[in-house]
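[Meeting: bench + compute handoff]

Bench side (C.D.) handed over the final construct sequence. Compute side (W.E.) agreed to return the predicted structure before the next meeting so the bench team could plan truncations. Sequence as handed over:
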Amino acid sequence: MPVRIYKPTSPGRRNSSVDLFDDITKGKPEKSLITIKKSKAGRSGGKISVRHRGGGVKRYLRLVDFKQERFDVPAKVLAIEYDPNRTARIALLQYTDNEKRYIIAPFGLQVGEEIVSSRKGAEIKIGNRLPLELIPVGTTVHNIEIQEGKGGVLVRGAGLGAQLVAIDGDYAQMKLPSKEIRKIKKECMATIGEVGAKDKRLIRWGKAGRMRYKGIRPTVRGKVMNPVDHPHGGGEGVNPIGLKYPKTKWGKHALGVKTRKPKKWSNKFILKRRK
């Protein structure tokens, strides 16, 4: 996924870059695998639950198959497509009975290749999906299940990959992109390889207008508000916040707060915390 950096011919072009989409082989999505995405503008039950959201371009949701439960049925890669709802590319598969499905496209997967999902075992190659217990230690994988049969939930973003560190008893030890080492049931499925579109993180959006396409509205700093609107507000001219620590609009700690519940049920599966 190459990225083009433009010359600063205008203030909006300065420090901005764009995706060239050279790895895309099909322009329009498969009609049977899309649905309307309803815009909620950061609201839940009519009330704002996430600030600074709204607008954005209209999108279709691609129905991505995270389970890949059609075991031992080869599928041919028909196309690599763009998905506006995720950073990764998606691959269009066609099974031997002509059924089509989308999956997350791993790095290096080419049009015309055949991949398979199997619980009994298959070749260790990019795109094949296997239980963790059948994957060699040290292999890079993505789209990992946490609960058997529920579908992949871990490591699905562009350029990400987790490493299988060891198989210990009933569990596999996985080193996640955050450097956290976690135990996962060895029967859970994972796809060989890392997610494609590695250069996605290198894109510089450059101007506010491109963020509005994504549905992100302007963010006003708390220190330029009035005291009634924000704990950082008030004062004349450019002033510090006047507090021991930054606060949210509602007076709670804004930085360095641990958001994970200290007694969360899955804590016992974490062997080493992320840094």
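W.E. noted at the follow-up: The chain has a mean pLDDT of 92. C.D. will use this when planning the next construct.
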